[in-house]
Amino acid sequence: PNLMLDAIGTTIFTVMSALATQHGAINLGQGFPDTDGPQDVIDAAAAALRDGRNQYPPLTGVAELREAVAAANHRFYGITVDPATEVVVTSGATEAITASLMALLNPGDEAVLIEPLYDTYLPVVRMLGATARLVRLNPPDWQLPRAELEAAFGPKTKLLLLNSPMNPTGKVFSADDLAFIAALLTRHDCYAVCDEVYEHLIFDGLKHTPLMSLPGMRERCLRIGSAGKTFSLTGWKIGYVTAPARLATLVARAHQNLTFTTPPNLQRAVAIGLAKDDAYFAAMGTDLAAKRDILAAGLRDIGFIVLPSSGSYFITTDFTPLGFEGDDVAFCRHITEHAGVAAIPVSAFYPADAPTHYARFAFCKRETVLREAIDRLSRHF
Ligand code: PMP
Ligand code: GLN
């Protein structure tokens, strides 16, 4: 067997969802909404199936979706994109991340990754024979340690992987953070793979700023989006990469050997979704922020320390005040099995020397479900 894959183990999201099912727990672990996204987008996918959109679509995505992605880049961020050469549609952001890393990394290259990190990043960097340089954000406010970030860059650095809004912390990198990162990329002549799947799931009046929109960054960034997140349809697995043509071509080369194409009916429906009015996108953030507030208040009342979250589906909590004896993995197992609520241990987002007193809860659920989860936990603690 491939020794690297053999060593990875099953993703924590699958492990905790299975445990939740086994114990009939409310699943606030794996991040997926319990209400499907817009009916017109779903209807468009169904209609497209009946409409004969069932054979291989073009390698880089159907024209309508590439055009819709280009238009969204311009509408939301003022980024001008050529839909013919600068957009690649992938089977989810997961494939987009892998294809982007494949497009850039050679064996011996270094990639700067920021901890806590989404669990796809590191195994792919390593499989490509590259080395990760890890920079750790400092809880509880997840500050970017600038001197350490700077020190992680060197002659072998090829890219930085930036996830904002960030999973699991809910951190939105500030304008200052982004400017600092942009200066480093320019100085060291590096690229950025920008995982922006939560671009529209952002709260409290903040506005998402793609690193790509900063001066000098248009040619250095591969910007990744996900219809799963933007339309609350996580099973659809439609992702898209926006990148300068030279890099988009390489992403497409990777894509042709990973999946080659992505279901055309879903692509058509996502193109219709991306053309929705501004009110739809704004409501994504307001609706989710209300859910965040309900869960955060409930968990605080129980005794958790709830860390701030400005975006994504998630809040991280410090469960130390509850007096539980055991680490975060034991804690998340315990509440799944005995309180009937599943969460994700945040140590899963660190390859080594992880903090072990944080649990991540997903709040992308109906209000009644969130309240039931809070009730269950408060009865238990
Ligand atoms: N990146 C991050 C940070 C995520 O949280 C997720 C969520 N699943 C993904 C990528 C993958 O997105 P997709 O489901 O579109 O593959
Ligand atoms: N991104 C989702 C999360 O963080 C899970 C996706 C997956 O299960 N791979 O919960």
Report on the architecture of this protein.
InterPro entries: Aminotransferase_I/II_large, Kynurenine-oxoglutarate_AT, PyrdxlP-dep_Trfase, PyrdxlP-dep_Trfase_major, PyrdxlP-dep_Trfase_small. Its cofactor is pyridoxal 5'-phosphate. Keywords: Aminotransferase, Pyridoxal phosphate, Transferase. The chain has helices spanning 3-8, 12-22, 39-50, 63-77, 92-104, 121-127, 146-152, 175-188, 227-230, 245-258, 264-274, 278-302, 328-339, 367-380, and strands spanning 26-27, 87-90, 110-115, 131-136, 157-163, 191-195, 221-226, 239-242, 305-306, 314-318, 341-342, 344-345, 358-362. The chain is α/β, with parallel strands linked by helices and 381 residues long. It has two domains: 3-30 and 279-380, Aspartate Aminotransferase, domain 1 (Alpha-Beta Complex); 39-276, 3-Layer(aba) Sandwich (Aspartate Aminotransferase, domain 2). The radius of gyration is 20 Å and the shape is globular. Residues 11, 13, 30-31, 167 line the site of glutamine.
**Backbone shape:** globular
Binned strand content: 5-15%
SSE class: alpha/beta
User: How many individual β-strands?
Assistant: 13
CATH class descriptor name of the largest domain: Alpha Beta
| The CATH H-level homologous superfamily of the largest domain | Type I PLP-dependent aspartate aminotransferase-like (Major domain)
Mean pLDDT: 97
CATH architecture of the largest domain: 3-Layer(aba) Sandwich
Protein name: Aspartate/methionine/tyrosine aminotransferase
Keywords: Aminotransferase, Pyridoxal phosphate, Transferase
Cofactor: pyridoxal 5'-phosphate
InterPro entries: Aminotransferase_I/II_large, Kynurenine-oxoglutarate_AT, PyrdxlP-dep_Trfase, PyrdxlP-dep_Trfase_major, PyrdxlP-dep_Trfase_small
